[in-house]
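Quick one:
INPUT:
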């Protein structure tokens, strides 16, 4: 029988909750404050913890933090009075499964407990099936090409995330690979027959979004049904209106644990939340695990490997595109360009060249003009320190050995060019 540890400093609440919870198939145990609850949880372990937020000497938020430190898989549901709803929303930030606002209905309480139990059982099934380690690093690396520290860190982060079903927020500029990561997470946590449902909040009209995602009764529309057992990807979530954001929260409370929720954004959602432009409760529900995807200009050392891979994927009528090589000067220009379109733009440039070139060796002169214009190159202090001399030489060459012009581009005195 699944067990619930009820934590509240009022004995009358214990009696009331016991009377409504036990008939639904749960066993109950009690603690009158956070400190006693923590001791009891460590001694007995419970499937769920149902804790009031306002207790002394250890309140519900502190108990939540301590439980998550001791057992990251603990499922904690916070109870709150109306006046402390804001604190309950903050509890989501620290890993609470959900919260209940007093006075709550019995059916709402039981439904929340059942959803919490389903999530607990999902975690246990993954551990027993040997899926807990998540996707293999080499499988992730095959999708996230690069050897830079930023990419190595990202690969390890995605590996850890692939072992859970917790909502993930992917943050980064357009073209940095957010969809690829969503696909990796879906493969790791979805069932073989499940779907990855992609919804672009920037392209969907508000009415279409309400009908297809929120549903007629706010309990989930066809997109939610399709995502069952799989993954729901909400792209550009910052584009939703505040009214839709608030409605989305109610849908997620009822359905989010039936699928893997992945959201993506090109903006700083935390800042938007602080400014009142993004609903705080939605932020804490979708941003439990934020992932930053580096822009291509932040990892130029990965460009040679990316260029090689993208060229190999192209089809050339003259010879095998896999044999196309980019000279050092071409790679230097590619590394210096700021790539506003990131991986998408690099792929388009390289694949077009590899597919249409009649020469196997590609020099900088064969690159698009916009890549070779000095105005697109970063200042010296923005470029890799280890490539200082190579970069100075490249700028000098572009300036036809005019040291004064080169110094102006680099922001240096002419005698500092070496």
């Amino acid at each position: 029988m699944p067990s619930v540890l009820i934590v509240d400093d009022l004995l009358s609440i214990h009696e009331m909750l016991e009377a409504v919870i036990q008939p639904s198939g749960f066993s109950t145990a009690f603690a009158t404050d956070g400190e006693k609850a923590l001791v009891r949880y460590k001694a007995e372990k419970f499937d769920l913890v149902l804790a009031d937020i306002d207790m002394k000497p250890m309140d519900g938020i502190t108990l939540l933090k301590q439980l998550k430190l001791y057992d990251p898989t603990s499922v904690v549901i916070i109870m709150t009075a109306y006046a402390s709803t804001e604190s309950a929303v903050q509890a989501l930030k620290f890993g609470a499964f959900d919260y209940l606002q007093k006075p709550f209905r019995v059916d709402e309480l039981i439904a929340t407990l059942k959803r919490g139990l389903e999530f607990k059982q999902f975690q246990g099934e993954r551990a027993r099936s040997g899926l807990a380690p998540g996707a293999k690093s080499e499988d992730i690396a095959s999708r996230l090409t690069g050897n830079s520290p930023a990419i190595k860190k990202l690969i390890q982060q995605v590996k850890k995330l692939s072992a859970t079903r917790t909502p993930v927020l992917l943050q980064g500029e357009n073209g940095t690979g957010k969809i690829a990561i969503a696909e990796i997470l879906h493969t790791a946590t979805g069932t073989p027959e499940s779907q990855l449902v992609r919804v672009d909040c920037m392209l969907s009209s508000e009415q279409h979004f309400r009908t297809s995602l929120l549903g007629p009764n706010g309990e989930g529309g066809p997109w939610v049904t399709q995502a069952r057992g799989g993954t729901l990807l909400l792209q550009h979530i910052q584009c939703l209106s505040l009214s839709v954001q608030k409605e989305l929260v109610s849908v997620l409370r009822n359905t989010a644990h039936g699928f893997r929720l992945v959201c993506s954004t090109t903006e700083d959602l935390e800042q938007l939340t602080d400014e009142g432009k993004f609903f705080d409760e939605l932020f804490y529900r979708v941003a439990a695990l934020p992932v930053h995807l580096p822009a291509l200009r932040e990892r130029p050392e990965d460009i040679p490997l990316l260029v090689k891979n993208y060229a190999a994927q192209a089809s050339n009528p003259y010879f095998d595109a896999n044999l196309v090589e980019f000279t050092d000067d071409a790679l230097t220009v590619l590394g210096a360009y700021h790539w506003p379109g990131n991986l998408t733009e690099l792929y388009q440039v390289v694949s077009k060249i590899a597919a249409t070139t009649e020469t196997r060796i590609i020099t900088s002169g064969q690159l698009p003009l916009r890549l070779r214009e000095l105005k697109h190159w970063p200042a010296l202090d923005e470029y890799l320190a280890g490539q200082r001399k190579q970069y100075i030489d490249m700028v000098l060459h572009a300036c036809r050995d005019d040291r004064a012009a080169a110094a102006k581009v680099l922001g240096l005195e002419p005698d500092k060019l070496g």
